[in-house]
């Protein structure tokens, strides 16, 4: 995905058409699934990406907005819902400029695997650009308690080790 991001000219992208935790170590069954999920790289006009600080961990852990698809939900609808829930951004606050062409998967460390989350996640990634840098980001205060704008290189440094490959 890194090569794909580097190949994109973010300032020249046209908007795409919009469509309307840890479980304490309980292991999933042998036939566990990989949870379908969407993720977003939200850029401001300076080319910085939005990262959110997890509220439920002791040491500062930052991640991109992301979350699971609900039954019957399209990836685009899940993207809008997740960005709204986690960041407070409404669909009018951003444009989707690109969609990674493949689904990407990673396995969770065993301590994070559960019947709800499965063995890991398979994710569809989107690139979004704020329409106006004055759009207010409001972390949900449930899963996330802070946000900041970082460079792509900083984003990778902030990523938890098991997600860095994506």
List keywords for this structure.
single chain, five-stranded mixed β-sheet
Description:
With 166 residues, the protein is α+β, with helices and mostly antiparallel strands. Helices cover 16% and strands 30% of the residues. Strands 1, 4, 5, 6 and 7 form a 5-stranded mixed beta sheet that branches. Strands 3-2-8 form a 3-stranded antiparallel beta sheet. It is globular, with a radius of gyration of 16 Å. It starts with a helix and ends in an 8-residue tail after the last helix. 25% of the residues are buried.
How are the SSEs ordered, and which strands pair?
Elements: H1 2-7, E1 34-43, E2 49-54, E3 62-63, E4 66-68, H2 75-87, E5 94-99, E6 104-107, E7 120-130, E8 144-150, H3 152-158
Parallel strand pairs: 1-7
Antiparallel strand pairs: 1-4, 2-3, 2-8, 5-7, 6-7
CA-atom Rg in angstroms: 16 Å
Give helix and strand order, one letter per element, not per position: HEEEEHEEEEH
Distance between the termini: 7 Å
Mass-distribution shape: globular
Low-confidence stretches: 9-26
Q: With helices defined by DSSP (H or I, 4 residues minimum), what is the helix count?
A: 3
Q: Give a quick account of the main beta sheet: strands, pairing sense, barrel closure.
A: 5 strands, mixed
Beta strands, count: 8
Summing up helix and strand content along with how strands pair, one would put the structural category as alpha+beta
The amount of beta strand, in percent, is 25-35%
The average pLDDT value, as a whole number, equals 81
Helix content: 10-25%
